[in-house]
Every structure is written in C-alpha cells, then in structure tokens.
Amino acid sequence: MNTIKSIILSACMAVNPIVISASGQTADKNINEYGTEWQWNEGTIEVESPQRAPGQKSVLGLALPAMESVRVGFVGLGMRGPGAVERFTHIPGVEIKALCDYEQTRAEDCQKYLEKASLPKADIYYGENGYEELCKRPDIDLVYIAPDWLHHAPIAKCALRNGKNVAIEVPSAMTLNDCWELIDLSEKHQKHCMILENCCYDWFEMNTLNMAQQGVFGEVIRAQGAYIHDLSPFWKHYWKNGENDKLGWRLDYNMRHRGDVYPTHGLGPVAQALNIHRGDRMKTLVAMDTKSVNGAALVTELTDSVCSNFRNGDHTTTLIRTENGKVIEIQHNVMTPQPYNRLYQLTGTKGFANKYPMEGYALGKQQLADAGVKVDIEDLSAHSFLSGKEKEALIEKYRHPILIKYGEMAKEVGGHGGMDFIMDARMIYCLQNGLPLDMDVYDLAEWCCLAELGSLSMDHNSAPVAIPDFTRGDWNKTKGYSHAFASPEQEEASMKKAIAFTESLKAKALKNKGKKSKSKK
C-alpha cells in the first residue's frame, strides 16, 4: 500500500508560496498551496472553517454498542503494519479478517503471525485500490491504517464511507481539508476515527499525566514536545515508487512541504495534559524554521542534481497559545545529528516534569508531602530533580491504572518498548466494553493541523495563524481529559467472552488445518 500517486517531476520542484505586499496585506481572500482559503484579520491569518452540516452531530465522547469480538482489516504492511498484525494476535476477542498492501507479497507474508498464533488465515487484498474492496466487506468492524502518509486519509475516508471504525497511523492527515473531511465523515456515520499516537502510552507520559490530573504540579501552564530523530540511517530504506524515485516517499514529502510535518509524537501527550478540547483549546500558533542545509544536501546526493529549494527547514519550531493562556512549544528535526528527543516537559505552578534529555520531577518538600509522598530529605527543594528514592515513591503512588493493567504484558509483546501494544489493547478494550476511545477525530485534526498552519505562518514571515475550532464550539463542554473504564463486573464479563471467542477461532483453525492435511494425503 505504500505508494505515492504524485510523480516526481524533478529532484527538487520549486513551490511558490503566496507573497504578501509591503504593507503586509493581501486581497480579502487568498488560497494556499493546499487549496485552503485564508485571509488577514488584524495581523493574524485566519483560515476558512466549514460549518457542521444539518443532521450531523458531534462525536465528542462517542460510545458505540459493546462488541463481543472485533473484526479487523489491516491496510499498509510495510514498516509499521506487520508489527501491528503481530500485536493483535495477543489481544483476546480479535479476529483478523483481511490483510492488504500495495505489494501482494507483503500482505501474504503477514499470514505467518496468524499461523504462529494458531489463528485462521486472513483474506488477502493488494494493488493500488485493494483497500477499497476490503472496506466494502460487511464483516469488518475496524480498519487499521498504516501505509505512507499520503494514503492515511484517503483510505480512512473510504472506510468511514463504508461504515467502518478506523484507526490511523501518524500523521493521520496532512492537510486541513483532510482533517475536516475525516471529522465530517466520523460525525455523519457516527463511527470512531482514532489517531494511533503511541507516545501517549509511554510509561513516563502516562504516569506524569496521572500526576497532572491529580494536581501534583499545580496548574500546568507551559508544555514542550518534539520529534527530534536523526533519520540518516533510514532515508534510503523508505518505500520508493519505481526505479525513477530516488528519494523515497518521506524525503520527497519533506522536500515539497514546509512546516512540522510530523508533530503528533510531541503534541499528543502534552495536549492530553492540557485538556485540549476538554476545557481548553489551541487558539493561535506562530512557526519558524531554519534554512535547509542537510535536507537539500541529501537530495543533491541522491539525485546528482543540485537542490536549491528544499521547502522544509532542517529544524522547525512552533509556538501555540491556548484559549486559557497556556503555551505549548513543539519542535521537529529529522535532519541533524543529535540524540533522540521528544522533549516531553510540563511546567506547573507547583512542580515540574521532564523526560528528555534527563528524566525526572522537581517538587518542593511541601508539595511532595501534599502529594502523599513521605520525604526524608530536610533541605529538599524544587531547584533540582528528586532523588531516586523520592522519584520512585512518587511514580509508585501515581502509577497509571492502564500501566498497571497492561504494563507487564506490553513489555513481553513489545512495540516501541510496549507502548504500541498498550495503545492497541486499550482501543480494543474500549470497543469491547462500549466506551469512548482514548483519542477521537478532533484530537487527530488538532494534532495534525500544525503541518499546514505552520507552513502558512512560515511563508508569511512567521505571522500568527488562528487555529480552527475543530469541535465547532464543543471544546469546553467536557471538563478535563480522562480515560474511560468499565465496571469490574462488566470488564470481567467482556474478557470472558473475548477469551472464549479467541479459543473458538483457534479450534476452527486447527480443524481446517486437519482437513487440509487429510486432503493432501
């Protein structure tokens, strides 16, 4: 499924952004490179936002009837997809009905995970439009989407139009138009559209979120996140669309587009801590980037043609101000050599949390005592990180319930240290218990919009850009972000049914295997 429909016309195609006049003003209406209409309003760029169609209703807090079993189809089995297939074989109550990729061999190859788990084989789809037939199947509840970025939204739209719930790898949408279309389809069909942001399920982020929700840091007023990851060992391994594609889809995208094109790893966890669209909303952003040095040089090296207009800078910084006066800083850098860093940091009125490059918490003696942690150090202050003993005591007290439930199994199953498994298991848990998912289509739009809106800001001298209210006025109806849980009795009952369902699948697979063996004899 990893294919790019656009043909590379040159190694470094020039893209001409809209140029403003010396007075800083343009005509009343402007159109950017993505086809989005925008205008100036007292020095701030505002984009057009569509109204909710008549009869369409919000999916904020959407909960569907509980599913005893969840039937899944996977689309995109290149880099991320196979790992997802393998992880789902460890989740009770799941039936993998279909596997799809642009290349048939990659889809077929994932049958080995089902065979290893003693589960029935899945049906295979392939080719440029194979996913369309998969989405039409009436016996699929969830389409799990993991191809290249440009195909995330088109496949999701197809699945939603066919009445399927969707889970989409990151970034789930690359344009505002895609964001709005996914919102409208999710609202129209009342189906889940979840962004697969695994970093929201990492250990430090989950425990820190629990602390923030319990008031350990006071009021969180500033947050940082990032995706800083030198991809130099990986550029040559991204899927290429034929022998004339010298760059691969990911480098090609960075060459053609400006802005934070991969913002969700950094933004997702801090957005949850700041209750975005659950009592607060992102209101305005300002973005800027460095010039492109390593990016342009890499294209020149791979194509033997000088690249003079690499759109994206080597390092991108986006500042966001929320409705309630909080500030978020998000960075993106995949071009320069430096340690991996997601920058996750929360600054509160009474405490501080930081993950990269040094993991720790800074709390005063009184605040730590108020948090219910015994303090043995007389001169403890928030001027330095907590010692190992106090830190471990704090973590133990505020260990997130989801980590308690899935943490040990996640370490065994794996997937970026286990957070991928936690993400998948939580999604299935919510579907099986008829609960709202941890992330909705508005999260998807809010976290992905930095790409296009950041580009607008950068192309106009880092001007402020108003961030649309993707909830269309509902951002303050829910007070505080939370994870949904079933009652212990309901949870036990649904798990029994899930385990029984998986056992029946294994019995079916064993029976079919026996029939084939007799047939061969």
Query: What order do the strands of the largest sheet run in, or round the barrel if closed?
Result: 16-15-14-10-13-12-11-17
> What proportion strand?
15-25%
> How many H/I helices?
17
The CATH homologous superfamily name of the domain at 200-410 and 449-466 equals: Dihydrodipicolinate Reductase, domain 2
Family: Belongs to the Gfo/Idh/MocA family. Glycosyl hydrolase 109 subfamily.
Cofactor: NAD(+)
Keywords: Glycosidase, Hydrolase, NAD, Signal
Pfam families: GFO_IDH_MocA, Glyco_hydro_109_C
Question: In words, what does this structure look like?
Answer:
Residues 206-358 form the Glycosyl hydrolase 109 C-terminal domain. Residues 70-195 form the Gfo/Idh/MocA-like oxidoreductase N-terminal domain. Belongs to the Gfo/Idh/MocA family. Glycosyl hydrolase 109 subfamily. Residues 1-21 form the signal peptide. InterPro entries: Gfo/Idh/MocA-like_OxRdtase_N, Gfo/Idh/MocA_oxidrdct_glycsds, Glyco_hydro_109_C, NAD(P)-bd_dom_sf. The protein has 521 residues and is an alpha/beta fold. It has a domain at 200-410 and 449-466: Dihydrodipicolinate Reductase, domain 2, CATH 3.30.360. It is 36% helix and 16% strand. The protein is built from 17 helices and 17 strands. The protein has helices spanning 81-88, 104-109, 111-116, 130-136, 149-161, 176-189, 203-213, 249-256, 264-273, 294-303, 365-370, 388-397, 401-413, 419-432, 441-448, 450-459, 488-520; strands at residues 30-31, 37-41, 44-47, 70-75, 94-101, 123-126, 142-145, 165-168, 193-195, 220-228, 282-289, 316-322, 327-333, 345-348, 351-354, 360-363, 465-466. Strands 16-15-14-10-13-12-11-17 form an 8-stranded mixed sheet. The protein has a 6-stranded parallel sheet with strand order 6-5-4-7-8-9, sandwiched between helices. Helix 6 runs antiparallel to helix 15 (441-448), helix 7 packs parallel to helix 9 and helix 13 (401-413) crosses helix 14. It is globular.
